[in-house]
Give the backbone structure.
Amino acid sequence: VYFIENEDYFPKKTFMHELDGEEFEFHDERAIFFCRGVLETVRKLGWAPNVVHCHGWMSALVPMYLKKAFVEDPIFDDTKVVYSVYDQESNVEIDNDMARKSIITGVSEDDVELINTASVDTLHKLAIKYADAVIVGSEKISDDLNKFIVDSDKYVIPHQNDEDYVDAYDALYDELLEEVEVYS
């Protein structure tokens, strides 16, 4: 198990706020650091993932980075991306400069246009745009986000109960892996 660690962005054992309840700053930079850090770690270790499954807004840049910035990297040649969307804290403040900050080699202003007005929902939309498949991980998501998912024409697994989700996810992975050459 590897951990992406940075005391400036992830100084405590909590995810969104200080122990006293005060919200962390720099959610945009924290997400960018996390997403790039994970992908760079995978690349440096030489792992060639068949499927990258991203969960929630903190990982929302990964699908775009894989499809745009890392598209020429042989490690990620056949990698499929699944994004799980959740009804997460929509009150999280994300800097509107996140679009500019998230541009790296291979990513253009047009690629990040969805997050010019940054929010949890626009980050979800960005991830959905670049993912190969989408899983709705919460019983309720916003109507706007649900419409975006439906209009995306992606392979979508609607919210599943605790008894059924394993079979649904297994079927999705099987379908995605049929499209790529899997090395054991």
